[in-house]
Design a protein that fits this description.
15% strand; Cytidine Deaminase, domain 2; 8-stranded mixed sheet
Length: 338
């Protein structure tokens, strides 16, 4: 997993104000190339380091390079990153580590390893961000590149290393306050902009106006399937927590009955002028039930929220296209029928 130990600097712990992220077209294309190579080859998640500089309230990302694969045991990841940054510095390229990137599939990037990696990055490199590139949506013509940073509540949660309901309630943290999205601006050189303008003019008019293209249908279908899986997983977590609450209530009732019985026995012994029974440690008789960790349900809730937002984004256009094409198909079949 991504590590921030390859950084060559340490920044203060105070909160910085990164208003937006500016990515060079070269860095974006290298990230896209790496992500699609990994997704088409072995279906692994692509990860890499982001290099750049902080200019006032802007984080400029000017270059990137991929992390070595986990199955290559002969290569040390930390030494590899340091060697890459040393070589880039020799050729006068920005070599400061400012974050990392990861590929995603229809928005399923929120996970426990990602939270832990970003926590280590932000505690060692305060301005660092994680850039998420969605391969499936981009392959369908919807470029999806987003930058995220952990909120102060999420950082405090990991510092405390407490994921119980009480701790999360005291921090007032939920899935909606785990990450803060930072706007991304993609900057190209003037020559690149001229080339893109010429390429846009070269596209035939009929190729650029396919308003009834159903390319969003498969993306929407994949998101709906993932949403159903996450809802089932969240339901299982809710069942576990309800079972824990029932066990706690049952244990409290057993404690109450035990104390009542002990008080009645002591009252009877006192009436016979006998010494009362010695007090026993209730924690030894009734062992505390371990509280289930709430971090995983919170992550699943965040995934459900992400899928819901993406689905609502696509529904207005995808469902309208599906109904239109269905009506055209029915009309065509009606005409062709004898």
């Amino acid at each position: 997993m991504a590590s921030a130990r390859g950084s060559s600097r340490r920044v203060p712990d105070n909160e910085s104000s990164i208003a937006y992220v500016q990515m060079d077209g070269l860095a974006v294309m290298k990230m896209i190339k790496h992500s699609h190579e990994e997704s088409t080859g072995n279906m692994e998640v692509a990860q890499g380091a982001l290099l750049g500089l902080v200019v006032e309230n802007c984080l400029e990302i000017t270059n990137c390079f991929p992390f070595p694969k986990h199955n290559d045991e002969s290569m040390d990841e930390e030494e590899y990153q340091l060697a890459m940054m040393r070589r880039l510095r020799r050729v006068n390229v920005d070599h400061f580590h400012v974050g990392w990137y990861q590929s995603a599939d229809v928005g399923n990037f929120l996970s426990l390893p990602l939270l832990e990696s970003q926590y280590h990055y932000q505690t060692s490199i305060e301005e660092s961000v994680v850039v998420i590139y969605d391969t499936q949506k981009s392959a369908r013509g919807f470029l999806t590149v987003k930058a995220y940073r952990l909120t102060p509540q999420a950082i405090q949660m990991y510092k405390d290393n407490e994921f119980t309901p009480e701790a999360l309630r005291n921090l007032k943290i939920g899935y909606e306050s785990l990450f803060l999205e930072v706007p991304i601006v993609i900057k190209n050189s003037h020559l690149t902009n001229i080339m893109l303008s010429e390429l846009a003019d070269m596209i035939p008019e009929e190729e650029g106006t396919k308003f009834l293209d159903l390319g969003t249908a498969s993306v929407l279908e994949g998101q709906l399937r993932c949403l159903m899986d996450r809802v089932d997983e969240l339901n299982q977590e809710a069942i576990k927590f309800n079972r824990y609450q029932q066990q706690v209530i049952r244990q409290q009732q057993d404690k109450h009955r035990f104390l009542q019985k002990r008080s009645q026995e002591n009252a009877a012994r006192q009436a016979k002028d006998e010494p009362p029974l010695p007090e026993e440690d209730l924690n030894k008789l009734f062992r505390p039930i371990p509280v289930p960790q709430r971090l995983n349900p919170m992550i699943v809730s965040g995934q459900i929220n992400t899928y819901s937002q993406h689905i609502s984004q696509f529904c207005s256009q995808s469902l309208a296209k599906l109904y239109i094409t269905q009506a055209l198909q029915n009309a065509k079949e009606g005409k062709s029928a004898p």
